[in-house]
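Quick one, probably user error.
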């Protein structure tokens, strides 16, 4: 296990290094931030001073080496627009995005797995057909349209839930958290539901497929022949084996929820990192874009590592193959 973990950490470090190359050089061939930051009537001398102050007059490989050396010390650059370090700027917004991602993923698990289990155990019942039909709707409807529909129904027509903002927050370790207050939950519910809809459909269908695949297996027949209670067979043998592929998908979906919650955050004016990255792209604020992408890559690497560890714990065959 220790050798495997060290090997995975080395792979993760290699991936991070490659991503710094791709992200840094990729962004520096797109546009020129000086054209946005400097006024149109600025003189050539003023433009030259601005270029020198941002370090853009240096060759690209020197800029990359400086970025890499600073990144190893936790400095991912200075925002051109906000005039503050990019990393703290993003970290200020990340708690809001994390709350949204955790709530959406939690809803997907709490709703998707039980419904998928029902649809898999009783595939010919009417409610199973309704569940599978509903999952198609979850896949088909665009996120922005569902968000607007939720606002129209629950905020405008019924007046039950607020449509924008994050609500009241509680400060912990210098960061505001809204899930600790009732008002925060009222603001969180609609964007989380909007973000979770596609993931509920995905988890539901994967769970159903897993259950249908596991039920005809020999060990399930032996368990039934030995007189083990149906609830125990479903809870231990069926559900546990169904969860193995689900863990991978849910882990990756959690990462994508954090990285690509931009549309939902924009519709509900949720003050997360997604809104910040849209503004930074419009202003070509390279340090913030690079820092955001690097944080996203780190999150995916960490999530993949956690998923692999969980996979080894859930499936003994993986441990045996690794040890062989």
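Nope, works fine. Designed sequence:
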């Amino acid at each position: 296990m220790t050798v495997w973990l060290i090997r995975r950490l080395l792979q993760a470090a290699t991936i991070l290094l490659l991503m710094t190359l791709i992200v840094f050089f990729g962004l520096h061939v797109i546009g020129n931030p000086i054209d946005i930051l400097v006024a149109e009537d600025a003189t050539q001398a003023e433009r030259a001073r601005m270029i020198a102050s941002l370090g853009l007059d240096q060759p690209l490989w020197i800029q990359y080496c400086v970025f890499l050396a600073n990144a190893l010390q936790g400095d991912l650059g200075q925002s051109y627009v906000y005039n503050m370090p990019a990393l703290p700027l993003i970290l200020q917004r990340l708690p809001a995005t994390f709350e949204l991602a955790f709530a959406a993923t939690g809803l997907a698990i709490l709703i998707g797995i039980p419904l998928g289990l029902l649809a898999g155990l009783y595939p010919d019942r009417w409610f199973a057909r309704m569940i599978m039909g509903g999952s198609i709707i979850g896949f088909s409807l665009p996120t922005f349209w569902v968000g607007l529909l939720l606002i129209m129904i629950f905020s405008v027509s019924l007046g039950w839930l607020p449509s924008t903002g994050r609500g009241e927050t509680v400060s912990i370790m210098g960061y505001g958290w809204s899930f600790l207050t009732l008002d925060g939950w009222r603001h969180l519910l609609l964007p989380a539901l909007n973000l979770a809809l596609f993931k509920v459909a995905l988890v539901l269908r994967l769970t159903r497929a897993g259950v249908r695949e596991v039920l005809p297996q020999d060990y399930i027949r032996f368990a039934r022949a030995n007189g083990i209670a149906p609830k125990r067979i479903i809870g231990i043998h069926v559900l546990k084996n169904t969860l193995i592929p689900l863990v991978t998908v849910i882990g990756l979906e959690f990462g994508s929820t954090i990285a690509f919650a931009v549309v939902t955050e924009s519709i509900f004016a949720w003050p997360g990192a997604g809104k910040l990255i849209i503004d930074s792209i419009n202003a070509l604020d390279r340090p913030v874009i690079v820092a955001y992408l690097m944080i996203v890559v780190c999150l995916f690497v960490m999530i993949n590592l956690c998923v692999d560890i969980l996979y080894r714990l859930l499936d003994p065959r993986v441990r045996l193959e690794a040890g062989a």
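The chain has a mean pLDDT of 83.
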